[in-house]
Amino acid sequence: MNMQFRRALLVMVGAMFAVSAAPSAKAAPDAAMFAKCAKACSACMTACKTCTTHCEGMVKAGMKQHAKSAAISADCRDLCDVAAKLCARKGPMSAAACKACIEACNACEKECAKYPKMKPMADCAKACVACSKACKEMIAAM
Q1: Domain containing 135: what range?
Q2: pLDDT per position in the chain (142 positions), as tens?
């Protein structure tokens, strides 16, 4: 073997070793992961919408303590809607939307969990937990 060929061969082997020894980058979330997150966010949006309507009715009936849950569930509904849309189209800003969605879902679940005997609020809290989990999984996969 000539010297140039040996050097080229050693460089190639070294490069192959370096590539195989390097930590692998995370694979992008697959279509199923995006779909799962979009579905959870959409379900949460629906539960939050129902909860908001319920809480607004409670406030009108004089139960002013539901004003906070009405406002939080309305914000959570809107953030879940955005996250659902971005995940459904596999948008590059899905992770940012999911981060905001997690924060909203955590706050909404905490507020709604105060009223476990009220079905719309219990359903909302449950949907928020599932949505937050799906968003965390999506972010972890990115």
Answers
A1: 30-141
A2: 555 544 544 444 443 444 334 444 555 678 899 999 999 999 999 999 999 999 999 999 999 999 999 999 999 999 999 999 999 999 999 999 999 999 999 999 999 999 999 999 999 999 999 999 999 999 998 8
| Interatomic CA distance for residues 66 and 127, integer angstroms | 19
| Positions of E strands within the chain | none
Q: What is the pTM of this model?
A: 0.79
- Asked if the structure places residue 36 within a domain, the reply is yes
Contacts for 60 with CB less than 8 Å, ≥ 6 apart: none
